[in-house]
Design goal:
Two copies of one chain form a homodimer. By secondary structure, chain A is of the alpha/beta class. Chain A contains 13 helices and 13 strands. Chain A folds into three domains: 84 residues, 434 Repressor (Amino-terminal Domain); 126 residues, Response regulator (Rossmann fold), CATH 3.40.50.2300; 151 residues, Response regulator (Rossmann fold), CATH 3.40.50. At the A-B interface, strand 1, helix 4, helix 5, strand 3 and helix 12 of A face helix 4, helix 5, strand 2, helix 12 and helix 13 of B. The structure holds a DNA duplex.
Chain lengths: 374, 374
DNA sequence: TTGTACGCGTTATCAT
DNA sequence: ATGATAACGCGTACAA
């Protein structure tokens, strides 16, 4: 970083409550509803009603009040409103991973799209260990600080579930393991996605396949387990022989010093299989792409020698031309936000608990197995 | 003054959809500082001091208060605290694009990392037109609702700049066009990045190159312009001939019905060049990758026939093995947040305005030009 | 070290 | 339709 000289502004940021409003920057400082009332020549209550668009306000007065407010650049103090009304107009979004992961960022965007127009602010938080989760929840009489909580991708323990049940604000689960404790939820139908992937591979002629799982960081991941189970069940149901179904668990990322090592481990595990499978279902796109890179280094061509199917359809999947199971976290988040909105209004959501359908995206990482293996 | 906390609970605060929740709804509802005081047998102010860790509190008392607070599951009402103290403990983050773009999501994460430990909440917002921007700013006596504003990737007009200057809360620009109006800023040195890219291509032996730009959605994008200019300047300074430097502006995404069409347009423009350049510098990774796909369909091999350099080094770049100019928005956001923190404390940031250095990432999309073109 | 009392900017109730 | 006035829950000079 290079140093630049900055323009220095002496004044501001030194505001003391109950203290002097040391003039400084001129006005523009903290216009209150009361000042608008004075300016418009009406009472505080009238200003409040007029500006909030309540009825029982003469349209003439309302106009005058609006003008006065504009003139003074008035805007409500959310804090004061919240304190008085009991509604915070804020919603907490809890994640288990970094906010810039594909999934979490999409959820944020989706929720934002429906909540912002309703004038709700979104407050994202993350927890990555059960300890943090527990801390978050124990302080969660967030009753007082937010109007609803949306919990994304977090596998709650019974302690948290209990707290959830007692909360007086609506709670919505997103991609959670169970719907237990939530007032509403949106889950992905992992099983269906995996079923479709396996069905594709079978149709292509594959006889021997493996599932490769590597949980992402965090204590709460469980989709690996779920997807692996779905893989086995689907394949068995379709007539695959147990001896032709392999399951490789690479471990967690934290078990390795670098991501490359984790990938190398997966590659080694695949190469060690004898005979090698002709197709791989991988838990997530990121690991699938890395795996493909690793296999190619060892002369395994994808898709000629090995078909690979990912899961999620993150942006990288299209870039890497990866066949994968598509899910739409933005849409799921919109749905979750809609449910939260309904619950906050005291209404019944269209559907308390819903299940989103994944879609198989056919791209270049899958093909018929090599001749010798058919 | 008479206190009747707990006696009168306006029921617009009690949320109960579909009637009662199994039993427990009992108390867990709204514990106030006062109740803790009663439980601990001290005054309200003592509780306040004890829980906030101020000195001049007997450690014995503090312990008792803490226990009482835990027992009652007390947590502060941020609204009330804010109202009383004048600090909101919230920071506004303004973006010009969807929150789930690589850049914006990374900024969010970076800012979160430094602000959350300091107990600040992050409030993300987006604006995509000047109208929205103007609305955001006109209501921005957000003085009252947040303690600082971080503005990311937004090209402010003079109107907004003026408002910025009058704001009484710290404002930090991130990836903005100028530092005008901001108390502090973090910018990327686009010029250096583009210079390095051009230098690489020259060293590889390229003689004829093109810059391809396509602004992302939104009214505020200007990096395209900036990067294109830097491309031309760098190349000319390195001795390239003007006739060997092409500049292709594909237009904005909104000009096309689909992204594929926009990509097709770029491909056509490149193919139409005669003689074709042997190297392309593309404004962003996403478009670079798409372009490569399009060119390959027309038999142009990358990198054998055409070298391509992207910009940003988003996740997709590594997956697509794209040579690109790396920038680190997470780190930039951390820096911006640090500055905001210092300004809010009334301190002078280490550096008011800083410039981040991009790094050229050498990957598989660049090579020497074909024989015939050397 | 601890307690008292008032203020922060709105909303909501009850008069008028 | 409009105006007083009491909460809302906490911070903080100032008194004890």
């Amino acid at each position: 970083m290079i140093r630049c000289s900055g323009l220095f502004r002496p004044d501001h940021r030194l505001w003391r409550p109950g203290g002097e409003r040391t003039g400084k920057v001129g006005r523009m400082v903290r216009v209150t509803l009361h000042e608008v009332a004075v300016e418009a020549g009406v009472s505080d209550s009238t200003v409040s009603r007029a500006l909030r668009g309540l009825d029982k306000v003469d349209e003439g007065t309302r106009a005058r009040v609006r003008q006065a407010a504009d003139r003074l650049h008035f805007s409500f103090s959310r804090n004061a409103s919240s304190l008085a009304s009991g509604k915070t107009m804020r919603i907490s979004l809890l994640f288990s991973d970094k906010l810039n992961t594909w999934f979490d960022a999409s959820v944020l965007q989706g929720a934002y799209e429906v909540l912002y127009p309703q004038r709700y602010d979104l407050i994202p938080s993350t927890v990555s260990t059960y300890e943090q989760l527990s801390a978050f929840f124990s302080r969660l009489p967030a009753d007082r600080n937010v109007d609803a909580v949306i919990v994304a991708s977090i596998n709650l323990g019974s302690g948290e579930t209990d707290i959830l049940k007692r909360l007086t604000i609506p709670t919505v689960g997103l991609d959670s393991r169970t719907i237990e404790g939530f007032d509403a939820s949106v889950l992905l139908d992992d099983r269906k996605g995996m079923h479709d992937a396996v069905a594709l591979l079978k149709r292509l002629g594959h006889r021997r396949m493996a599932y490769v799982g590597m949980p992402e960081p965090g204590d709460f991941e469980f989709s690996s387990q779920r997807r692996g189970d779905a893989f086995m069940e689907s394949a068995l149901a379709m007539g695959f022989q147990p001896r032709d179904l392999l399951r490789i668990d690479v471990g967690r990322r934290a078990d390795y010093r670098t991501y490359d090592e984790a990938v190398g481990s997966g590659v080694a595990r695949v190469l060690a299989l004898d005979p090698m499978p002709t197709a791989l279902c991988v838990e997530s796109d990121g690991y699938a792409i890395a795996l493909i890179g690793g296999l190619r280094k060892y002369g395994i061509r994808v898709p000629q020698d090995m078909s690979v199917v990912g899961f999620d359809d993150a942006d990288v999947a299209a870039a890497a031309d990866l066949t994968t199971v598509h899910q739409n976290p933005e849409e799921m988040a919109r749905s979750a936000a809609d449910k939260a909105l309904a619950l906050m209004r005291g209404e019944e959501p269209e559907e308390r608990h819903s299940l989103a359908d994944p879609i198989l995206m056919l791209r270049g990482s899958t093909a018929r197995p090599p001749q010798r293996a058919r």
